[in-house]
Amino acid sequence: MFRWLIVTFLALIIFSGLQPWLQKLGFGRLPGDIRFRLFGREWFIPLASTLLLSLLAAAIARWL
Length: 64
What we know:
This is DUF2905 domain-containing protein. InterPro entries: DUF2905. The chain crosses the membrane at residues 44-63. It comes from Limnohabitans radicicola. It holds the Pfam family DUF2905. By secondary structure, the protein is an alpha+beta fold. It has one domain (2-63). Helix content is 62%, strand content 19%. It has two helices and two strands. Strands 1-2 form a two-stranded antiparallel sheet. A hairpin with a 2-residue loop joins strand 1 (33-38) and strand 2 (41-46). It is globular, with a radius of gyration of 13 Å.
């Protein structure tokens, strides 16, 4: 259980770091990605992008 928490935390950090680069490729603007302003800050919840990247990672892992 603890290992999954660490993996999820690291994945979120990596995704946040790669977000500007991924936005140039079109991720973050997919239908299902939520972006809103609250308390003067812009919040971003990439539901569809995360699902697409997870499917891509699973396909690569299965292929290897």
